[in-house]
């Protein structure tokens, strides 16, 4: 049976879908996600996805809602199954049966500057301090930090080269003098340990021939947050959120922040105006104006 189980031998259906994803330039992480989502659908069906009916799709999505599957996971599955049905199987009728879940996007947790400093100080070792410092100091995604190479640090132009970021796009990120110094401290320590290979990974994993994993960085952040006494829910992406918010609070133009983050849409970057304390504090409240008028003073704002 043509299932798309990742731990099973590659079947003709899975191979064809992977070829279709490759030809359309989908990134490796997207390909893995799509295969995982289709696998879940196959496990639910207990047969090949290419034998699915519209009623099967309805039952699967209803099952997800009844079992508390989050909207992001449901919608990720919709994207994967739409690709399978539209591109690989040429079954537009099945793709139309998939339903996107609408939900309100939550505001991201953001650290204060003081909390970010405490978190970095509590990082478990110079490698993690440099890696987390890069996530915060350059606003990189965790996968982008993990896949940096030594040659991506351009100290002459003070830039970090990010290759094949989200959407398989290349971009330049900022490199501050403080971050450069932190990276140099780690580079010297890495050379001393013998794990920093020429043209190799900037943050090697357990083997110096492999990059550090996103899971390792997640664990490092959570460990540092606990040591630093930070009660917020913190992940490597929190550092990226904090980078954007702190730049906004320094009056950096939001379009510049959009470029630095690698966002394709300004609407995505504009989310940070909702968590910027400076943006909120800059507004004069109606009660302040009312009280000023009652006291015969000039209203603020």
How would you portray this structure in words?
With 301 residues, the chain is mainly α. The protein folds into 2 domains: 12-95, DNA polymerase, domain 1 (Orthogonal Bundle), CATH 1.10.150.130; 113-280, hpI Integrase, Chain A (Orthogonal Bundle). The chain has helices at residues 12-23, 28-45, 54-66, 71-88, 92-95, 113-121, 126-138, 142-146, 177-193, 214-228, 236-249, 254-261, 266-270, 277-281, 286-294; strands spanning 153-154, 159-162, 171-174. It has a 3-stranded antiparallel beta sheet with strand order 1-2-3. Strand 1 (153-154) and strand 2 (159-162) form a beta hairpin. Helix 2 packs across helix 4 and helix 7 crosses helix 11. The protein starts with 11 loop residues before the first helix and ends in a 7-residue tail after the last helix. The model is unreliable at 1-6 (pLDDT under 50).
């Amino acid at each position: 049976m043509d299932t798309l189980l990742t731990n099973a031998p590659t079947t003709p259906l899975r191979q064809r879908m992977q070829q279709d994803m490759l030809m359309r330039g989908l990134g490796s992480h997207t390909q893995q996600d799509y295969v995982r989502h289709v696998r879940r659908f196959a496990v639910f069906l207990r047969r090949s996805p290419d034998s699915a009916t519209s009623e099967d799709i309805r039952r699967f999505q209803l099952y997800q809602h009844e079992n508390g599957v989050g909207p992001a996971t449901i919608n990720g599955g919709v994207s994967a199954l739409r690709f399978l049905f539209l591109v690989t199987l040429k079954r537009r009728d099945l793709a139309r049966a998939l339903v996107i879940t609408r939900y309100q996007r939550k505001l991201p947790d953001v650290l204060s500057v003081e909390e970010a400093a405490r978190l970095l100080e509590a990082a478990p070792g110079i490698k993690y301090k440099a890696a987390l410092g890069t996530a915060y100091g350059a606003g990189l995604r965790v996968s982008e930090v993990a896949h940096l190479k030594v040659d991506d640090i351009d100290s002459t132009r003070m830039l970090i080269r990010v290759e094949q970021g989200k959407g398989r796009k290349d971009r330049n990120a900022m490199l501050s003098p403080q971050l450069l110094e932190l990276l140099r401290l780690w580079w010297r320590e890495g050379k001393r340990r013998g794990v920093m290979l020429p043209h190799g990974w900037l943050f090697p994993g357990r083997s110096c021939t492999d990059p550090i994993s996103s899971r390792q960085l997640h664990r490092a952040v959570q460990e540092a947050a606990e040591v630093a006494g930070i009660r917020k829910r913190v992940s490597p992406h929190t550092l990226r959120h904090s980078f954007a918010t702190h730049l906004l609070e320094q009056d950096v133009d939001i379009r510049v922040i959009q470029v630095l983050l690698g966002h394709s849409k300004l609407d995505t970057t504009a989310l940070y105006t909702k968590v910027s304390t400076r943006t909120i504090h800059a507004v004069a409240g109606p009660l302040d104006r009312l009280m000023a008028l009652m006291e015969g003073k000039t209203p603020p704002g």
